[in-house]
Amino acid sequence: MRKDAFSLPEGMIYLDGNSLGPLPKAVGPRLQEMIADEWGEMLITGWNRAGWMEQPARVGNMVARIVGAPEGSVVMGDTLSIKVFQALAAALKMRPERRVILSDNGNFPSDLYMAEGLVGLLEQGYELRTKSPEDVAEAITEDVAVVMLTQVDYRSGRLHDMQAITEKAHAAGAVMLWDLAHSAGALPVDLAGCKCEFAVGCTYKYLNGGPGAPGFIYVRPDLADEAEPALSGWLGHRQPFEFDLNYTPGKGIERMRVGTPPVIALTALEAAMELWTDVDMQALRRASIALQEQFIEEVERDVPQLTLASPRDPQERGSQVSFRFEEGYAAMQALIARGVIGDFRAPDIMRFGFTPLYIASADVSAAVRILREVMGQRLWDDEKYRIRARVT
Amino acid sequence: MRKDAFSLPEGMIYLDGNSLGPLPKAVGPRLQEMIADEWGEMLITGWNRAGWMEQPARVGNMVARIVGAPEGSVVMGDTLSIKVFQALAAALKMRPERRVILSDNGNFPSDLYMAEGLVGLLEQGYELRTKSPEDVAEAITEDVAVVMLTQVDYRSGRLHDMQAITEKAHAAGAVMLWDLAHSAGALPVDLAGCKCEFAVGCTYKYLNGGPGAPGFIYVRPDLADEAEPALSGWLGHRQPFEFDLNYTPGKGIERMRVGTPPVIALTALEAAMELWTDVDMQALRRASIALQEQFIEEVERDVPQLTLASPRDPQERGSQVSFRFEEGYAAMQALIARGVIGDFRAPDIMRFGFTPLYIASADVSAAVRILREVMGQRLWDDEKYRIRARVT
After folding, report:
1. What pLDDT, on the 0 to 100 scale, is given for residue B383?
2. I want to staple A198 with a disulfide (CB 3.0 to 4.6 A). Which of A75, A87, A141, B311 is the partner?
3. According to the 3-state scheme, what is the secondary structure of chain A?
4. What's the domain range around A206?
């Protein structure tokens, strides 16, 4: 519990850290310092003097520790969608004789869209094949070049078994790419142990890096010097400041850098990541499960209108709990208007994230009390049109 | 002249705004407000309440005015390198029967690298063909799908004639892509008038958006609904919050959005762009040329060791002046150590940017006096090893 490290509005119960994490108090002062003392005073020399040039790797190492990856195997930059594209393109080059990207329909749509864009660009018979989450492991046939899955389903919180699916992928000769958007900072991840070739993720959810904070990419260290960067920008070049006319990929994970790094955004994220230095991910997971179990128990006892949409076994969930309710959109707006912040995913999912760094058991009980009031009195009937106009 | 709007270190003469613009005073307070009052207080609801979701288009319109593009034709995001890739991929789809990307060896290497990466991904006989800047217009043959050029050469400042080359490209049936990295905010650009299909650029140079500030992309409005986005991220989808499993491109320029927008970086940029509201680009250009002409005249009079590397005709230069000097790297470090900030580009280019918003005639004379001292006394001899270790 590190609630004192966050700036949370008085009276708000924030159960949406799975979408956008709240503001760590360290971010504002650090950003102000970077703006005034680094950009303002050092100007161009900040690239070296303030360590901006190494920041993508430095912050990458902070993320690496959270996801069980070794030092030097993660680099920051761009967005999660771009990192998906990078990883997919490199994965396909590793299996030139295969033509299938396999995913599931529980994946976050942007991952599927990026794959669709890549397939449309390549032509040559490439295909994005999508199965249901339950069937995807069995669908890893020997024509699959790369399996791309998000560990935690963004709607239900359902958890894929990274280890087991990666083994299946490898047994079929496929490359494995994991999207850790809802995993990094939510639960222990063992990238090194799972042996997947690629992983990607974002940092604005559980890692609290701020709206639109940079993405990350992991490449398994033994492959990092052979992964081909299709997005071959100058900062992935072996010697960017030689200004060669031809691209030579940099060493290891550095080649997954693309353009000039977003220093201001990375500085906010770096400050946010300081919080994680002494977080025990196993203890965080136990606390997260305790909060989720309490929430499910109290909602099922007090708010019978809602139907659990997440797996009942906590070992099969990430760090969120979702309930189905037909008028969920309007009900969620009424709940938000009363200071309990969750979110809604079409068609009928009310989604609640549990983040033990700043959410305690008492918050869960308070949230359920307000939810019960909203649901029992159908409080959204009065206001739904007003609210709908404001929040889409 | 808006020097009072910038936070510049006392005693520094900053002639490197062509690489990283200095800090506009408005940025720090605005960023602090966004962090505390928007992220901190609104959290997830900031996407709507604080207008984060529309920010890429809103800031895009601010950039559009600077580059002569109509409202709604520019969108912000990612980096310049990514925007180059997007534009090239869409351009190639517009000429499916052609296989050549034509550029010149005066282009910024990252543009060439991104093209190389795309060609390597596509295979199918695609080719990046590179000519010298003088010969590129004549090399636009009927097998060229897209001509990709940077208007202002990053080393010499040499200016391409956008209008004439675009006409040649169109006469040969090719698509035209301009990189405006060293043009936007440096000189008047008339994108609408030049009729090129695509343009891209960055915002951390003359537009002062901060280190690694987001890139931009322009698509000619009559083509914006048919350009195919290869980097088809969810925020380019027509209805991102429907979470469809299939990608349907958004309307117009919106489809060139990719992932979640970098709100913190865009907020810094938006504050920096306020400065441009009342800037007359023609007057800025006249002031820039006057500063450049003064610099060349005084350097050639007082510092005979240096040889002009930029075109002598100011109409053929952007907003920078470059000189050749064999020991230019070390000499530039000695100059920087004395508060005159320019930069160096291999093998022997000493580069100076002229930005009338915060550089005046007196600064130019003072810079030349210090340059004369450094060159006359070979001041870098004493210190070059020390400096080389610090600044690469």
Report:
1. 59
2. A87
3. CCHHHEECCCCCEECCCCCCCCEECCHHHHHHHHHHHHHHHHHHHHHHHCCCCCHHHHHHHHHHHHCCCCCCCEEEECCHHHHHHHHHHHHHHHCCCCCEEEEECCCCHHHHHHHHHHHHHHCCCCEEEEECCCCCHHHCCCCEEEEEEECECCCCCEECCHHHHHHHHHHCCCEEEEECCCCCCCCCCCHHHHCCCEEEECCCCCCCCCCCCCEEEEECHHHCCCCCCCCCCHHHECCHHHCCCCCCECCHHHHHCCCCCCHHHHHHHHHHHHHHCCCCHHHHHHHHHHHHHHHHHHHHHHCCCCEECCCCCHHHECCEEEEECCCHHHHHHHHHHCCEECEEECCCEEEEECCCCCCCHHHHHHHHHHHHHHHHCCCHHHHHHHHHHHCC
4. 27-276
